[in-house]
Predict the structure.
Amino acid sequence: MRWRRRRRQGWLAGLVLGGGLVAAAYELPYVNWQPVVPPVDAHPLIVRMDAKGDGRFWSPRSGNRRHRGVDLAAPLNSPVRAIRSGTVAETGTHRGLGRFVELEHRGGLRSLYAHLARVQVEPGARVRQGDVIGLVGKTGNARHRWITPHVHLEVWRGGEPVDPAALGLEVTPPRGGGDGEQGRARGGPPPARGTEPDAIERDALRGG
Ligand SMILES: [Zn+2]
């Protein structure tokens, strides 16, 4: 009797171990080997600064709003990549954001990629860190001809916007900028505030 039970326990332990190994093998591609990978293939990652706006995180927008993402310059139709592994929470077309992809990651983290030319993933799909999820475009309020092509990247944790740099994304301040309000005074026309109402559009998208 005891012998039988022991044998059954061994069989169960083997099943659990085997199942664990299968699960681990299945999950291996989704391991984040880095805290974040760049969402575009540009080196370095240049923050957009053009006649129509300042692409830095938390730069002012109209109505005392703030830019809740970072705008990363990249050539039109170049790949847009998942900064971390996750699941496609939502894709769509929005007046301000244009074509966008939103990913849900572990740990209450979300990332959103906007103004895409094309979305290349379906809602519910799992993506690996670095997978191509779309192509850089000028959709939504980035379609203005004075706005240089870029990806608008937002990162959210627990319902709060997070500076992607705080996650370890290394970005280069915009050319002619980089030191706050003073940078704005140097060279080129001052960026008109409120011309890219991402934050407002985002509120509309979220319904609050
Ligand atoms: Zn933006």
In short: The pocket of zinc ion is lined by residues 55, 67, 69, 71, 152, 196, 198 (CB under 6 Å).
